[in-house]
Amino acid sequence: MKIDSIKNGIVLDHITAGKSLEVYKALGLDKLDCSVAIIKNVKSNKMGKKDILKIDEEFALDFDVLGYLDPNITVCIIKDGKLVEKKKLQLPQKIINVEKCKNPRCITSVEQGLDHVFYLANKDKRIYRCLYCETKVEKK
């Protein structure tokens, strides 16, 4: 299998195996008018298996969304065919409009247009809580 190299774009590396489609959808990559390669179950010395996304265009990435979905992701920025920047992600302290509060009595269920804001309550267990009602969301 041959996947062309990228001239100018972004490579999302070290995605947990099987999560590349979730990342693809969350970032809205289907709306881009460029080549996007989804490479699944690649052998990795560090992880055993991993997924990789190659995006042949530069665009604004939401690092909080990426860090929430998978804090192991490495973001590689490619310009003129060369790696110019490499960023390691971590769990964001706060996420806005990434998840929706499931509590039907939460103010976000009643007030239309109110942002769904969650804060990181437990880093080790990846637990976030709604800022308004404290409802728990766990990201596995």
From TrEMBL:
GO terms for biological process: 'de novo' pyrimidine nucleobase biosynthetic process; pyrimidine nucleotide biosynthetic process. Pfam families: PyrI, PyrI_C. One of its GO terms (cellular component) is aspartate carbamoyltransferase complex. GO terms for molecular function: metal ion binding; transferase activity. The keyword rRNA-binding does not apply. The keyword Transmembrane does not apply. Keywords: Metal-binding, Pyrimidine biosynthesis, Transferase, Zinc. Residues 1-90 form the Aspartate carbamoyltransferase regulatory subunit N-terminal domain. SUPFAM superfamilies: Aspartate carbamoyltransferase, Regulatory-chain, C-terminal domain (SSF57825), Aspartate carbamoyltransferase, Regulatory-chain, N-terminal domain (SSF54893). InterPro entries: Asp_carbamoyltransf_reg_N, Asp_carbamoylTrfase_reg, Asp_carbamoyltrfase_reg_C, Asp_carbatrfase_reg_C_sf, Asp_carbatrfase_reg_N_sf. It comes from the Bacteria. Residues 94-139 form the Aspartate carbamoyltransferase regulatory subunit C-terminal domain. PANTHER family: ASPARTATE CARBAMOYLTRANSFERASE REGULATORY CHAIN. This is Aspartate carbamoyltransferase regulatory chain. It comes from Faecalibacillus intestinalis. The gene is pyrI.
